[in-house]
Design a protein that fits this description.
- By secondary structure, the protein is an alpha+beta fold.
- It has one domain: Nonspecific Lipid-transfer Protein, Chain A (2-Layer Sandwich), CATH 3.30.1050.
- 32% of the residues lie in helices and 26% in strands.
- Strands 3-2-1-4-5 form a five-stranded mixed beta sheet.
- The chain is globular, with a radius of gyration of 14 Å.
- It starts with a helix and ends in a 10-residue tail after the last helix.
C-alpha cells in the first residue's frame, strides 16, 4: 500500500507547495473547525509532514461528513465497490484523482478511525 500512497503523493503535486493537503471537518460541530494533514513524496514514500489546524488556503481536498458517516467510513463501511464514500461525505477536489487512488483513500479514512479522539466538538 505504501507504494500506491507514494505514487499518489507524487501524482500531480503542486510544485510550489511540494506537498498535498487534505482538510476535513465534522458537520455536526457548530461552527465547523477544519483540520488538515499534509502529505509529501519523500524518498519513495508518502510522508505526513503536518497534521493539525487547517492553515493551507488552497487544499487539494476538503472532506466533510456527519459524525455518524465519519464513524461508518472509519470502520470501512464504503458500500458497493466503495461508491458509498461519495454518498456519505461531501468531497471537494479532483474526483478523477480520488477514483484513480481509491485504495489509499480508503486506507486513509480507516486510519482516521485509529486516531485517538472524542466526540466533543473542538
Amino acid at each position: 500500500m505504501q507504494t500506491v500512497m507514494a505514487e499518489w503523493a507524487e501524482y500531480n503535486v503542486n510544485k510550489q507547495k511540494g506537498y498535498k493537503t487534505i482538510q476535513f471537518y465534522r458537520e455536526d460541530c457548530n461552527p465547523p473547525k477544519k483540520v488538515e494533514v499534509r502529505i509529501k513524496y519523500e524518498n519513495g514514500k508518502a510522508v505526513c509532514i503536518y497534521g493539525g489546524e487547517a492553515k493551507d488556503p488552497n487544499p487539494e481536498f476538503v472532506l466533510h461528513a456527519t459524525d455518524e458517516n465519519w464513524k461508518s467510513l472509519a470502520k470501512g463501511e464504503f458500500g458497493f465497490m466503495g461508491m458509498g464514500i461519495m454518498k456519505k461525505m461531501t468531497f471537494q477536489g479532483s474526483k478523477v484523482e480520488a477514483m484513480k487512488f481509491m485504495e489509499p483513500f480508503k486506507s486513509f479514512l480507516i486510519g482516521l478511525g485509529k486516531v485517538p479522539h472524542t466526540d466533543a466538538c473542538p
